[in-house]
Each structure stands twice: as structure tokens, then as C-alpha cells.
Amino acid sequence: MQKVVPFQLPDGDRRGPDTAPDNETTPISSALRTLNLGAEGLAQLAREMSGPMAASFDEAVRKLKAVSGRVIVTGIGKSGHVAQKIAATFASTGTPAFFVHPSEASHGDLGMITQADIIVAFSWSGETVELKPIITYSRRFAVPLIAVTSQANSALGEQADVVLQLPRVKEACPHGLAPTTSTTIQLALGDSLAIALLDARGFTAHDFKIFHPGGSLGANLKYVSDVMHQVENLPLIASGASMADALVAMTEKSFGCVGVVDPKGKLIGVITDGDLRRHMGPKLLQANVAEVMTTKPKTIAPTLLASAALELINSSRITALFVVEKQKPVGIVHVHDLLRAGVA
Predict the structure, then answer these.
(1) Which domain range does residue 106 map to?
(2) In terms of domains, do 305 and 179 share one?
(3) What is the largest CA-CA distance in the chain?
(4) How many other CB atoms are found less than 10 A from the CB of residue 275?
């Protein structure tokens, strides 16, 4: 019978291949190492951004803002996955952008890139062979090229118009092989470019809504004017009316409140279910609305984000808010309207 020889580790440890090391790393300690190294990498990137990289970053944002075409984002491997995310972030924040795969570029997709565009190429080493056709194409047709790499003197860095040199960081992978910390800072730098460009262009929440009409994000970007009940459905009553009339108006409209307006149509008070309970008595129905109403009620503008209206309703512990323009009621929004719209 052949003798079984134990697995020999390089350091002389004669444990078998399925035997755990004596000082086995726990899942939590491994996770914390990954997070700590990621945080250290981000801190190192921040130092570079406020120092050696600052001028290059400013120049990159200026070039991105000035381009009349699209932002072409490229990269391969893990850098390619980062590049795809950054292309999506550019597009969602008002900058026309898309991802071009380097391998597909050399098989016809270079035709997607025009002289009006700008290229942002991600490559940790800067020596990625697959990027060569895109680099050559950008130089031949004078398409601006921004390099995001850790090696400024690499093939990519040498050809780029702007180099954003990433700091050399320690990977969380114990073998130093799997891209982890490096992809974290690549992603952070790409996001920084997108947001700096957003700020430079004055991109607003209203603009953001155009590109995010669906889902919870779209719902939170709705305005009060999108969800409010219009003026013809408002529970309103004149300032000289009796509480009996006010109660009828409250019942008909079912908002749990009624607005009191002066002869000029300006909102001067609100009567809620709570006001009725506080003034409950045998003479309530004969009382004038001015005796019961809450003066200087909370109101909102139609241009307020619906999410802000919901926060005000919750913090004020009320169920509805009148929407006013120049002190005149133009709508009303109820908490149920906001929840049905998906606002959170």
C-alpha cells in the first residue's frame, strides 16, 4: 500500500489540507479587517484629493462639464464593474453617459464614441491591454481622455489628458490579490466626479425627479402640488359662519378639518376634530367659528417636496395641511394621500 504523505505547507507546517490553522480568522474579524482597510483607503484618497490630486480633479470636472456629447466610461474586470456603476450615476444625475466594454470596443463599438464625447477610463494598473484600442482611438480623433489609475506613468496615464492618480492601498484580501480596497476607492472617486459635476451644473431635486420617476425615490421626489386635492374640493367656510355650518363642511369633505377664510379669501384659521373635542359643550353649534378655530395654522407651499410635507405632518401630530399661495388656500394634502403616493 502506498504511504500517504501529509500535505506540506510552504512554512513547514505539516497540517493536512483540510485542517484549520491554529489561529483561525473568524468571520467577524475578517469583516472588520475589510471594513477598516476600506476606511483607511478612503481616508488616504481624501488626503490625496485635498492635496496632490486637487488640481487634476478640478480640471477633470471642467472638461466633463464642457463636453457637448456623452461621457464614455470604460474599464475591464473589477474596474469595469465600477465603471458601469459610475456611468449609471452620471446618467442619473443629468450627465448623458454610458459604459463601453473595452473588448467590444475593438469589435465595432468604437463607432459609439464621437469627437464630441469624453472618455473616463478606469484601470488600477493603467496597463490593461484591452484598453489599448480605446486609448488609440481617443488619441487619433482627439477625444478627451481622463484616466483613473494608480500609476500615472502607465500606458494609460501617459496618454491621458488628465490623470486622477489613486493612492496605493492595501487590499483586504489576505493574499493581496482580490481587488477590494482598490475598488472601494475607485468607486468613491467616480462618485465624487459625478457629484462634483452635479454641483457644478446646479442640478436640482426637480431635475433629479425627471430621471427617477419610478419607485420609492420617485415618490419621495414628488411635490405637494402632485398629490394635493385641488381648490374645488377644499373644506372652506367664511369667517362669520357658525360652528353648525363648519361641522357640515367638515362632514362633506371628510378631511377632518375645515379652513376659515376672510372676505379676501385668505386663510386665517383652521378647525380640526381636536378643536371640536376641546370646545365640546351645549352651545358649540351656535358659536362663531372664530371662537373655536386655531389661528395662524401650519400651512405649506405647493412647491414643497411631498416627503417634507409628510415630515411636518408627523412632527406636528396632525393629519392634514392646507396648501397656500399668497395666503390663499389652493389645495389640501392628507397623510393618507402621501402614503398612497409611496412617500416615506
Answers:
(1) 29-203
(2) no
(3) 110
(4) 19
Residue with cell 380640526: 272
* Residue 230 covered by a domain: yes
End-to-end CA distance of the chain: 71
Provide the residue type at 178 as one letter. Answer: A
Q: What is the pLDDT of residues 97-153, one digit of tens each?
A: 999 999 999 899 999 999 999 999 999 999 999 999 999 999 999 999 999 999 999
Question: Do 103 and 165 fall within a single domain?
Answer: yes
Tell whether pTM > 0.85: no
What is the domain count for the chain? 2
**Using CA atoms, how far apart are residues 156 and 165, in angstroms rounded to an integer?**
11
What's the length of the chain? 344
Strand locations in the chain (E) = 71-74, 97-99, 118-122, 145-149, 162-165, 229-230, 236-238, 257-261, 267-272, 294-295, 299-300, 320-325, 328-334
Looking at residue 97, the DSSP 8-state letter turns out to be: E
Q: How far apart are CA 32 and CA 37, in angstroms?
A: 8
pLDDT of residue 273: 86
The CA distance from 243 to 186, in Å, is 66
